[in-house]
Amino acid sequence: MNTKESEMQQQIMQAAEELIMDRGFDATSTTDIARKVGCNQALVHYYFRTKENLFQQIFVKNIDAVLEFLDAYQFEGSVEDIVKKIVEAYFSVLSQHRKLPFIFVSQLLSNDDRRMFVRDYIVENERRRRVYYRFDGVVQRAVASGQIRPIKTLDLFMNIVSLIIFTFVSLPMYMDWLRKDEQEVQAYLQERQEEIVRSIVYSLRPL
Amino acid sequence: MNTKESEMQQQIMQAAEELIMDRGFDATSTTDIARKVGCNQALVHYYFRTKENLFQQIFVKNIDAVLEFLDAYQFEGSVEDIVKKIVEAYFSVLSQHRKLPFIFVSQLLSNDDRRMFVRDYIVENERRRRVYYRFDGVVQRAVASGQIRPIKTLDLFMNIVSLIIFTFVSLPMYMDWLRKDEQEVQAYLQERQEEIVRSIVYSLRPL
DNA sequence: ATTTAATTTAATAGACTTATTAAACCTCCG
DNA sequence: CGGAGGTTTAATAAGTCTATTAAATTAAAT
């Protein structure tokens, strides 16, 4: 039992991640994963025992990546600067992995156990919650100093996340319904990013 | 072949709608539907032939309901009034059917055919598109008159929808992770509704 | 009352799923 | 060389799912 993951194990996880991110958890069978890797289906179970377990490992990996990303910011500067940085950061990641928000959300909604699993992983963990607390501090100081209008941190957080997430979640509709090609989508995402920053920042102007 | 749907057919559709709205399309089997109604599983196929067909009928019913709802507004008054009305309207419907936004979105994302089906149903239909055009007129007039800052109608539309939809989509996380009971959720939704209106309206203030 | 038509059921085909088991295949160490 | 252990495979159990078929039942109509 190596502590190092074998080559094959990584390949399987990689393939599984791509397939799940592309088609969702339920629509991805262990047979699909094996076919993509080019190995036997039983091998997926040999390394991960259950499909659920495989999913959780992928999930945790992605959560860690996002948290680390956010944590890297020292949250310096004005709220405006921070909002801009957060939006930029999310957009740069999600532009590469457009379906991630949807998969993330859908898996958390359809399955109570997984929701609890994430709660234990993030919310119940002091170190991981720190990211939010730091943000809270910055926002409430800005409110107190009159730099921005009064707003609850949770509301501001929800606003930011809503606008970002939904942009990507609705992207397939934008493309198909308005018949946009890849180039137009790129431009749209860029404009949308700027507009989101504007909308948030403007909505925070003192009365 | 009656033009009027039989009693049983309606029961099946009703049961299917409830189950699908609660658990999603994939997680709802025709057997589940039949069990809920108390009839034989084959009867579901007798009336609707395929599960996909059953789903589409439910989908169209809900789309029509939403569009009719929005169309009922004459879009009079300031942009501020209209935004407030739209948000209120959505919240009043979605509070009763909290999972609707998620089911709606997830079904549109996971299945290309369904996305095309909706495109043909809404986007390609002049009468149904009218709702959006009317909104566009109001917004651009308000921009031209300097009543609100310059903004594309699509951006404003996306902002409104994002904030509303994501509130409901993330509700299960809010409840489980922050351990909120039903009463607290009610209050949260009320506050969130007001905050969304505030955020939108403030974000539109002229520079 | 008998025939016709619509509804409902039981049974089942056929295709997938996840997961397990035992056997085969390597690779490396003594 | 020979066995030991980790790796990979084929085979398959046991379950799910949609959809179809033919038979049974009910209702309506002449």
Describe the structure.
The structure is a homodimer of 207-residue chains. Chain A is an all-alpha fold and 207 residues long. Helix content of chain A is 78%, strand content 0%. Chain A contains 11 helices and no strands. The model of chain A has no long low-confidence stretch (mean pLDDT 91). At the A-B interface, helix 6, helix 7, helix 9, helix 10 and helix 11 of A face helix 6, helix 7, helix 9, helix 10 and helix 11 of B. Chain A binds a DNA duplex (30 and 30 nucleotides) through helix 3.
Topology (SSEs and partners):
2 copies of one chain form a homodimer.
Chain A: H1 7-23, H2 30-37, H3 41-48, H4 51-72, H5 79-96, H6 100-110, H7 112-123, H8 126-144, H9 153-169, H10 171-177, H11 182-203
The structure holds a DNA duplex (30 and 30 nucleotides).
Which percent range describes the beta-strand content of chain A? under 5%
Q: What is the helix/strand order of chain A?
A: HHHHHHHHHHH
For the record, give the distance between the C-alpha atoms at the N and C termini of chain A, rounded to a whole number: 62 Å
How many separate helices of chain A? 11
Rg from Cα of chain A = 20 Å
Helicity level of chain A? over 70%
Look at the structure and give the mean pLDDT of chain A: 91
Structural class of the helices, strands and pairings of chain A? mainly alpha
Largest sheet of chain A: none
Quaternary state, please?
A: homodimer
Shape of chain A: globular
| Largest interface in this structure | A-B, 47 and 47 residues
